[in-house]
Structures are given as C-alpha cells and as structure tokens.
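ping. complex inputs:
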Amino acid sequence: MQDTNHTARPFSSEGKGVARQVVLPMGKSLEISVRSLRVRFLRSLVTVMSLVLAVAFLAFTLLGHDVAMGLLASGSPTLQSELLKAGFDLAPGRFPGSFEVASSAKDRWIVILSLLVCAVGIVNAQLMAVTERFREIGTMKCLGALDSFVLRLFLLEAGMQGLVGSLAGALLGGVAGVLMGMARFGLPALTYLGFGDVAASMGWSILTGFVLSLVGVSYPALVASRMPPVAAMRAEE
Amino acid sequence: MTTQHSIVRVAGVTKSFDLGKLTVQALKGVDLSIYTGEYLSIMGPSGSGKSTLFNMIGGLDKPTTGKVFIDEVDIAQLDAYELAWLRNRKIGYIFQTFNLIQVMTALENVTLPMTFAGVPEDEATEKGLELLGLVGLRERHAHKPMELSGGQQQRVAIARSLANSPAIVLADEPTGNLDLTTGEEIIALLKHLSEARGVTIISATHDYKMLNVSDRVVWIRDGRIDKVEERAQLKITLGGIGAKEY
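pong. complex structure:
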C-alpha cells in the first residue's frame, strides 16, 4: 500500500475531522439488534416472560378496578350492592356525594412488589446476556465501535423486548381482568365498562413495562459499553 | 522496507499490573521500531510479556510508563473517538479465537468495520465479497461462523481485518486454534497478503511455522526484548537448536 507512507496521517489537523466519523446508522443498529434477538430467541423469551407476567398482573388489577368503577357508575342499586358484597370498598369520590371504588393499599403494594421483582429479574437476565456476549462486544470495539454503539444496541434490544412484553402482558392481564369481572358480575361488567378507562389502564401498563425494561437494562448495558476492547483478546470460552 | 518508515514505535515502555498487594511488572522497558510493510513476529513463552506488548502496539492497552507511537502519533494522547477511529481504519485485528460475530454471516462480519467507517452499503458489500474472494470464501459469504470450519473462520477474520485497508494488521496467535495444515495455509495467506497489499503484519505467536515467513522476529523474555533477528539470521538458528529453545 503506497499511500500509507505519506497520506494516511490520521491525526493531523485534517485527520481530526475524520476521526469523529466512526458511525453506526440507526437502521443498521436496528437490524443488528433485531437479529441478535432472533438468534437468542429463547433467552429473550425468558427475559420477556417475567415482564409479561408483571405487566399482566398490573393490567389485571387496573382492569378489575375499571370494571368495578363501571358498575358503580351504572347507578343500578343491585349492581352496587353486588359490588360491595364482592368485597370492594367505596371511598368518597372527587365530587361531594359521589363515590369511587377504592383500590386497597395491599393491592397497590403487591403490584409494586411484582414490578420490583420483575425489574430485578430483568437486570439479572441482561447481566447474564452481557457476560455471554463479552467477546462479541469486545470484538466490535476492536473493529472501531464506540461505547455509544454498544449502549444503543442493548437499549434497542431491551426496548423491543419491553414493547413486545408489555403489549402481550397488558393484553393478557386486561382480558383476564375483564373475564374475571364478567365471572363475578355477569354481562353488566362488560356493558358498563368505560372505554376511556380501559385505554388508560392499558396505556399505563404498557408504558410501565416499557420503562421497566429500559431501566432494567441500563446498568448491564453501561457495564457492557464500558468494557475495554482488550477483554476480547484475552477472553476464553 | 527500503523507506524504513516506522509505522509503530515503542519507546521505553513498561507495564505493571496490580494484583492486590502484588505488583507484577509484565514489561520492563521495551524499545522497538516496526517498519512499514514488514512482517514481524513477536515470539516468546507465555508469561513473557508478549501479549502485553502486543496489546500496547494495538492501542488496546496503555503503558504504565513510556510511549507507543503509531504513525508517529502518541496513542496515549488520543481520546475515545480517535482510538475508535484508529482501531477502525488503521489497524486490523486477527485473534486466536477468530472472534467472528456469531449472529452475522461471513459477509456481514467483513462489512461491519466498513459500516462503522461510514462506507455506503452497496460499496461495503462489493468490497466484502472481493475480500472474501481474496481469502477464497466468496461462495460461502452467506454462511454463519458456526457453519464454517476453524480455518475458514480465520480466513473470514483475515478478510475482516482488511476491510478498511488498514496499514497494520495485528494477529494474536492466528494459528493457535488451528491444526498444522490449516495453520500453514493461514500463514501463507497472511504472507501473501502482506506482500500483495503492503500491509504491515505484526503477529504474536509461538508457532515456529511463522518464522519462515517473518521478515524479523522479536524474542521477548521476562518483559524485555531478548533479541531481534532478521530473516537471514533466522534460517541458521532454525536449523539448529532455535526451534527447541523454548
């Protein structure tokens, strides 16, 4: 290579600009992370499963609440008394004289705990995934990847897992919540169900799951991205 | 070789590792110049500091004291972006364990450094195929590393190391995980590429097959350079006890 002798002086003033041109286009990152997910489908599935369960539980609780609210709002005394018989507590509502269904503190704690357990599970699973991919990460760095590329790949993967898991979980939990309501109160559970409430509950569940997934992966991804490339050289299977 | 332009210069490099209370000095002052286009082998038993020196040259590790210059630029002064750039375009790495990315096909492995370098996809694919052709694996470009033999994987790795036409190719025990014949093929390929493309090849090895093709051999022992041999001197030593020395 003749030109190495004179031209390629990478760090001269002209070279500095070029030096910042190590890139990984978004489309390519997406492609790589989708492929990584597909190849490690089973492992991803396990990670996603814990998220699905936690989000499903959240959605189930929220939808159960929505069903009760719908029945309360129906104004029918029989339904309301059935509601009380089923063990729902009524609390004073936002407007004087109105009531709403109180979500018990215990329920809330159980939901929060399940989400916490899920977050810990995700951190654990992702740390494992990072360890498994030490070589891959180190190799990419030797090929010129920046810390941010690695971080982005992991965040993208977790984001996709989070989205899929949350959607599945919200759907599962939501349907279960409504079915449970119907089992208890019959068809009125469905007819009096407010569409806005359901949408809001589902939305919250999905958002929570998505954020949880990203929060869970942030520490492992940071660990991965800061790994020195020399680790690839000495890594042994 | 006639220009004797030194592409890598190592000046008074020491490196110590802190192992709890114990400090181990892996390199105890090494000076070395590596010239453009030469095929240099770093030989030494394990624990000699060979790998440490090798990592310094590749900009993968920083010396405790002393300086490493690549193309007369002190790599200690580079920031993360410039180091990434250096690894991306200036240096190609070949590993003992091949280190192909398992989820990608042979072609994608070769084009990845070009993607990082911002080469348009069509161009990268074309060059990737050309490089795979160069190592004799053009038809197998759609195979995943798992579907290739060790020797083939190492060929892909060689193609990848040349992706951005680097000035230096660093090969860390490139034949360490290969059988004798395959190892010889890989060595022949490296030698051919170094001659055809004028790439400086630096390999850390204890494979004596490497000696035949090396322009120079640097023997490391106990964190110091034991001796540097030119090719002409080498043949004599090889015939004698040299090969059994370590």
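The longest strand of chain A covers residues 89-92.
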